[in-house]
Amino acid sequence: MHPSEVLFQGTRQPLLLPACDHYAGSEKLMRKSMALQQELGPLFDITFDCEDGAAAGNEESHAKLVALLLLDEANAFNRIGARVHDVNSPFFERDVEIICTEAGHKLAYIVIPKPESVQEVAHAIELVNKHAAKAGRSSPVPVHVLIETHGALRDVHDIAALPQVECLSFGIMDFVSAHYGAVPGSAMRTPGQFTHPLVVRAKLEIAAACHAHGKVPSHNVTTEIKDSAVVATDAQRAAAEFGFTRMWSIHPSQIKPVIKAFTPRASEVNEAATILHEAEKVQWGPINQHGRLHDRASYRYYWTVLQRAKLAGLPLPDSVAALVGAAESKGTQ
Questions:
Q1: pLDDT tens, position by position, 44-56
Q2: What's the rounded Cα separation, in Å, for the pair 169 and 8?
Q3: pTM: predicted TM-score of the whole model, two decimal places
Q4: C-alpha of 106 from chain center
Q5: Dihedrals φ, ψ of 96, to 5°?
Q6: Which residues make Cβ contacts (< 8 Å) with residue 10, sequence separation at least 6?
Q7: Closest C-alpha among 102, 4, 9 to residue 61
Q8: Distance between CA atoms of residues 278 and 292, nearest Å
């Protein structure tokens, strides 16, 4: 049996997405991000922003622009999603209708901001499905949810459990603002965002909920756009200390540092390849590698290391390249 079948019997394989989610709002920035994606490949996702990207009074034309760009030949990898207005906005359903009707088949995912409960997320998904079905989309549109309210954090495990949800993102600025001064503004950025107890709690709850249900936790943005070292440090801490596997970008200069921080090191990839190659020889039974026992429990970890490396564009050792290729042919992550 293939490792993707052996190692996850009875359980769903965790979803994997590109490590960087790059947000762009204006037409100029959206086109620039598409050009960069064409240059680098599908190593990062792009989210076209209807919520903060649309000027007041220009909401409908902005949604139509998003749909137009999704259909553009520059969308070569089908890894572009859209953030619509929040579910309580009068523009929410119109955003969904325009984008799903005109370009639903090219939409990688749709981002739902500011829900107050799991019920609001479920209602939003119903509307997305209604308009996607009218447009003839055959598969459900993956849904990403922004956790940035007290109610959403309260329901975070139930939200992560919804089958169509594949990613939860932390909206740190709205979350901090929702405390009306009880949490200082310094908690929106480093180092406060990694030390303030209420913010730390929120991040850990989001990450834990995602991992419990095989979904992707996406870390909040770094507002520092001039110093790439700050972005890199934030991404490293998000990955190593808080269990996030994805992070926002709001400037092209942030994309590469984010990808690098979430990409396994070459030594990790080589170790994973060696262990899994030996495990395959014994039909996925236990092995002794340098005096350490490995079995299916650790094989799952190393298998994920290889998947993340492949997603980041790293070349895999020949000993396991065929295994990963076989997984892709089976349609697994």
A1: 999 999 998 888 8
A2: 26
A3: 0.93
A4: 17
A5: -60, -45
A6: none
A7: 102
A8: 13
